[in-house]
Amino acid sequence: MKPTTFIFDMDGVMIDSEPFWRTAQINLLKDLGHTITVQDCIRYTMGKRIDDVAKTWCDLYSLKIEAKQLEQQILDQVVVNILKDGQAIDGLLDLLHFLKKENYKIGLATSSSWKIIEAVLHKLEIKHFFDEICSADDEVYGKPNPAVYIKAMQKLESKPSECIILEDSVTGMIAAKASMAFTIVLNADVSAPKFSIADQRCPSLAKVLSYLKTL
């Protein structure tokens, strides 16, 4: 059966916002007297919901700041950085135009909060491409729980067997696979063992587009 629905993750798939998240976390933790690295961010918080990110740092370092306050500070800094320096990942517009031309239903399902989603869609000017947009903020559990993907499928009125999900992180890949959809991982290191459960691995959005053209 040819797929009818394509669901995007956002960070690392549509926009390279991970550096913005890491910079915000590193700077804010420094202000609170703790030194963390990019590798710490990748290890502890990559792919997580913002409430989980803030709680992780508060728990790890017994921070005196409330997790909710840290969460808002991170969000505010990331939004500023996205609106200032955010750029679409190479090949995104070509992929979106192809999906529209081929009459795919297009969804967005991300761990990011609505504040971040709106900033990205505004900066990249792509909101009109999406039929449904879902944030894991609205779910009880974030990724790797598949709830946000299941919600997107329900809103798009698509069965898992009709869906392709594009992810870039291990956390997101696990969520996508748990939703029972066909899962493509976007990562330059397509041979990395950590992505072995993905159904397809592509090093670029151009390669994702090439793959879709074979279906």
TrEMBL record:
| InterPro entries according to UniProt | Beta-PGM-like, HAD-like_sf, HAD-SF_hydro_IA, HAD_2, HAD_sf, PGP-like_dom2
Cross-referenced Gene3D superfamilies, in alphabetical order? HAD superfamily/HAD-like (3.40.50.1000), Putative phosphatase, domain 2 (1.10.150.240)
- A Pfam family this protein belongs to? HAD_2
One Gene Ontology term of the molecular function aspect: catalytic activity
Which superkingdom?
Bacteria
Q: Which UniProt keywords apply?
A: Carbohydrate metabolism, Magnesium, Metal-binding
**Cofactors that this protein relies on:** Mg(2+)
The family line of this record is: Belongs to the HAD-like hydrolase superfamily. CbbY/CbbZ/Gph/YieH family.
Q: Which NCBIfam families match?
A: HAD-SF-IA-v1 (TIGR01549), HAD-SF-IA-v3 (TIGR01509), PRK10826.1 (NF008087)
Record protein name field: Haloacid dehalogenase superfamily, subfamily IA, variant 3 with third motif having DD or ED/haloacid dehalogenase superfamily, subfamily IA, variant 1 with third motif having Dx(3-4)D or Dx(3-4)E
Which species? Wenyingzhuangia marina
